[in-house]
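Data availability (excerpt). The following record was deposited with the supplementary files.
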Amino acid sequence: MDIPSKTASGGSRPMARLQARGRPMGRRRFRNRHVPSSTRSFFAQQYFEEHVLLDRTELLNLIQGGEDSYVEFKVRLNNPEKLAAEIVALANSGGGFIIIGVNDNRRVEGVDDPEWVEQQLIDVCRRLVIPPIRPQINKIAFDNGKRIVALEVSGLHRPYRTFDHRCYVRVGSTKREATAEEIAEMYDPRHSYGFELLPITTATLDDIDEAVFWSYVRGVRGGDLSEFEEHGYPVDEVMIHYLQLAVAFEHESVPTLAGLLLFGKDERVAAHLPRSGIVATRFGGVDITDPIVEREEIVGNLANVYERALRFVERYADLLQERPLRRWSERSPVAPRARYPRAAVLEALTNALVHRDYSARDQVTRLLIFDDRIELINPMRTSGVALDPICYGVVNAPHPRLKAIFKSPYYGLETVTGGVPMLLHVAQHFSGIRPEIKLVSDEFRLKIYGLQ
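Predicted structure:
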């Protein structure tokens, strides 16, 4: 083994700090890494905590220990895509090191241009890993003139994927594609961000409603489908590479959660995601204990669920574009139907479908209609979520790809802009009563009061 020079970069630390139960410090740091509890604490850790670089002794300990679940050796950088897969596997498995300039027999061969290697590593971490990883890179020189580069990989925003949406995990000194169960377990239980990319491995692209799918694509492309017609309308090609709503999984193309929800056949969505719809109930009064007039379970792709839920509301309420000039006469012998601002109800239904927590598989969105109000109760991880940012419209969408397509005019639905702030303003102006929003027991609860 080559001995590092005393003039190489990096300081020295007592050997007592490097060993614990016979394992080098470099490996221990990933077992004991502090994982931020929120996006804010993640950035605080990234930008305000000093990153501790490897010193030469720690690096030698890593090399002497050989490849394992935390360490990967590479003689040189030949294939950026394969390197990205190794980075993804380490990031999804707790973190580790990729050391460039060392062969599989633990012999230091060195690299010719450490600065070039460093730039290649930065480029791969930024372009070929989703979400991008902020690399920590150590460059070490040895007294015989050989130099190596060590990339430290951390996984704070799992799951990570390669640019072609493959998700890997590290098993010993090798990697393999993660199973659907493993991918689901990687998501932070505090929120559902990124869950739209989960591959639905029980489904296939045969479950996609091609009429709905190609109608959307035709709209986006200005009516011109000649490019796809020449190739036999390749759903898999467009779903994977154009829309990123499907992935290759075990030699087959499968839709992601967002892909199936947006473009799935109604009966296939119901089969694979039976709790993804809305249960709509009309009560004959103003209390949940009053008799049920009608109840409908609405399941299917999001377009169908949205339109059916809207029709259910319109059976029992009038949705108006503007506030009426006068109220109903109180002397009328027939109880009037409640009236609501159409824009507020459309936004409420949109919010329920595009922002709900689809990782809460045993919960369902509930639409409740009473004589005097409409309520929507939606699954949502409420831990660490503040109500004020939601009311001011300054929260990130948990499913940005799903939201973008759902609200696109080419998806074919009547939607509105303005979000929750618009809903609150329009509904209060219409009825004189401000809507109520509560975050309770992992649920988003909304009440819109009608005008009678």
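Summary of structural features: The longest strand covers residues 147-153.
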